[in-house]
């Protein structure tokens, strides 16, 4: 393994011959395999420091991985940017195609790769207001990205962690945050399990009871898997701690397969900082997915969906053929105990965690680490198409970093974010920016490193020391 950034030391020296001159000495350090992220070369006055945290002295250990905070901040910027690009592109086709038509005859069939760049067709509720064409949807440099349900709950959880000065949210913290930042009346951008959980919180119930099947009939819908992935980034390299942090937020709205699928996504995010720079993104994603697969009980339909899609991918069939086979096996024949296509009479389980997870694995594997191709496939795959695209767009955006995302699309983007498009009660009338959002993420990780990982924050060298499990 090698470091994806080199540490540059700037030394000043003078030598008297007939006059003094100034030279630059560049020292490239030899980094051991335990150092996953190095300094980006920023001087100390650029190092961010949380005024609300008492930074403790720490002696690095042999089991520690060293990660550059400034490099990680750039990757968090890439996460927010990649997620927004993917989210807004996926919104164009959200619920256009669900395979089996609903009771009104809408949503029948699927798109294919040939539909990219062609007219968008009506969704279950009519036409979208975003684009008449199926193509990438961007916010230009002088505009603002709007929040959506794929980004706003994660934004809210980040804020709750920071303002509560904690790494582990309690049920009361979550309930207070939801009631403060989510509108009660429509349009409040909540559906199925999230809406039910909010209604229960309004009645005084606390998480995790709000996600219990006896209280929330939507406990196996998609909600948790698109709102909690970010906890993986808050515990870099340590999926065990990431799962601990995400446990209650996930159980706020999910149980069983929906919970396990959410855990899968959290682990994918937590392992991203361990990506081997000597290998392709595709190879790293395959390793990460194999590790995350361990979160799915072997007898669960979510595990069998993952294994089925992976088998289709490895067989060499096209992504359309894999998607169609997924639909046939689970929506039509309802194999492996997957019954949501008939249990949900409104849209044949179009919001269900299971089928949307299967679709997300199609775009993850067939995208092969290419952010543009992954978003394209996710957008065309069907069902709740903005959700899988946002999950993998955010993950790949993190792995690429800000500049990597810009290079992939050969353009610059807006850096501002309007959380008040969908949520309420945030500072500055809801207008934020990716750099500030990434900085807040660094502050949260500083606390996690000290309080949950038993590691250290070295502000002089702008790095974290993160102990690894034996």
From TrEMBL:
Protein's name according to its UniProt entry: ADP-ribosylglycohydrolase
Q: Does the keyword Acetylation apply?
A: no
Q: Which organism is it from?
A: Maribacter arcticus
PROSITE patterns per UniProt: PROKAR_LIPOPROTEIN
Which UniProt keywords are given for this protein, alphabetically ordered?
A: Hydrolase
Q: Does the keyword Metal-binding apply?
A: no
Report the Pfam families cross-referenced here: ADP_ribosyl_GH (PF03747)
As one GO molecular function, the record gives: hydrolase activity
